[in-house]
Design brief:
It is a single chain. The protein is of the alpha/beta class and 297 residues long. Helices cover 45% and strands 20% of the residues. It contains twelve helices and ten strands. It has helices at 10-21, 32-41, 80-87, 106-110, 151-160, 171-192, 196-199, 205-222, 231-241, 248-254, 265-274, 280-296; strands at residues 2-6, 25-29, 43-46, 51-54, 57-59, 70-73, 96-99, 118-131, 134-145, 165-167. β9, α5 (151-160) and β10 (165-167) form a beta-alpha-beta unit. The longest helix has 22 residues, at 171-192. The N and C termini lie far apart (41 Å).
């Protein structure tokens, strides 16, 4: 199938590379420096078991998406509606748009600007852009996706390409589980500029993480969310499976870019306020990341 990636950063490039490697036609919409590298050299996918450069087509213009049967929507959460509107003219009537984003409400927001089928996905992968057109894979790489028209075909293609993929009726619960993991790690990794394995060795850090998680669980319960799995086990598993990974928030701050913190700990603070719940630890780390963001602008 023809697969397009809207927002060709580390996450989108990893899954694009896996699909292109399996023989699918892949096109990417991204930043100029990556687009030039993709078109002149190909997409370099440095995984743990292989290091290959794969031919792909890329553009800064969303028009390249035309004819795609599957779109991996990978833009930052604050850009969801804007990028969706840019994409809309080039989507077929039955194109499946799979949102591979942090946060819990991106698919819902995207549905307000495009009429095509939208399926939320929960992503567990440790990646980084190591240079123009070069994605480095540090660990994991599985997806949990929401049932939608053509989601089974998308799942089959991903599985055949070596991406473990599950279709789940409780994607909301899986998204919230991922959100809680992000709230536990992302801000602290960003503030300290440390990978997860080193981060948890810090004095008092496990206790701070426990408070972050407890606040998130309370907000999830108030929202009526049935979490898809054991939160504490999932939080511990990240240390085992991604010890060398810096959070996406840490990577954003290191590069002087705005982060998604408003859609992570900031989201928990807002939803807590809506339910009359105090979330002081999430409020604190959110405020600290926003301060750092203001310094790097």
């Amino acid at each position: 199938m023809k697969v397009a990636v809207m927002g060709a950063g580390a996450v989108g490039c990893y899954f694009a590379g896996m699909l292109a490697r399996a023989g699918h036609e892949v096109v990417l919409v991204g930043r100029p420096q990556h687009v030039e590298a993709f078109n002149t050299r190909g997409l370099r996918l440095e995984a743990r078991t292989f290091d290959e450069t794969i031919p792909v087509k890329a553009s800064t213009d969303p028009a390249i998406v035309a004819g795609a049967e599957l779109v991996l929507f990978c833009v930052k959460s604050p850009d969801t509606e804007t990028a969706g509107a840019q994409l809309r003219p080039y989507l077929g009537a039955d194109t499946l748009v799979l949102t591979l984003q942090n946060g819990t409400d991106n698919a819902e927001r995207l549905r307000t600007v495009i009429p095509q089928p939208v399926s939320a996905a929960v992503v567990y992968v440790a990646t980084e852009m190591a240079g123009p057109g070069h994605v480095k894979h540090h660990g994991r790489g599985e997806l949990v996706i929401e049932p939608a028209a053509r989601s089974q075909a998308a799942a089959d293609a991903l599985i055949a390409a070596g991406v473990p993929t599950e279709i789940s009726d409780n994607v909301r619960g899986a998204l919230w589980l991922k959100l809680i993991i992000n709230c536990a790690y992302n801000a602290l990794s960003a503030i300290a500029q440390l990978p997860y394995g080193k981060l948890v060795e810090g004095v008092g850090v496990p206790e701070v993480m426990a408070h972050l998680v407890a606040e998130c669980k309370a907000v999830a319960a108030a929202e009526g969310v049935t979490l898809a799995g054991d939160v504490d086990t999932a939080v511990r598993k990240i240390i085992e499976t991604m010890p060398s990974q810096f959070s996406s928030t840490a990577q954003d701050l290191a590069r002087g870019k705005p982060s998604e913190i408003d859609h992570l700990n900031g989201f928990i603070v807002r939803r807590g306020q809506a339910h009359g719940l105090s979330t002081p630890v999430n409020l604190t780390v959110h405020a600290l990341v926003k301060l750092i963001e203001s310094k790097v602008k």
